[in-house]
Amino acid sequence: MLQMGSSRPWPDAMEVLTGQREMDASGLLDYFKPLSDWLQRENSRTNEPLDWLKGSKAGRTPDQTKRLDKRRSQRQT
Fold first, then answer.
1. 42-50 long-range contacts, Cβ below 8 Å, gap at least 24?
2. How many whole angstroms from its chain centre is CA 55?
3. Whether residue 43 has pLDDT greater than 60
4. What does pTM read for this prediction?
5. Are 66 and 76 contacting, i.e. CB atoms less than 8 angstroms apart?
């Protein structure tokens, strides 16, 4: 595979290695489904805001922001 370098498109290299030209993440999604389900339940139970911008307050209610700030300060002490 490394011999191909940048001279061939990545789907060609993947086909040589795996026999397939298409990627499929369904196996990973199936494997991590129990964790994903638990995280969704836990986030719902704790009313955890689901934003990916660390420190961002976008999309949160003032009450959610207050609780999150309180939890963060408790972790730091």
1. none
2. 17
3. yes
4. 0.46
5. no
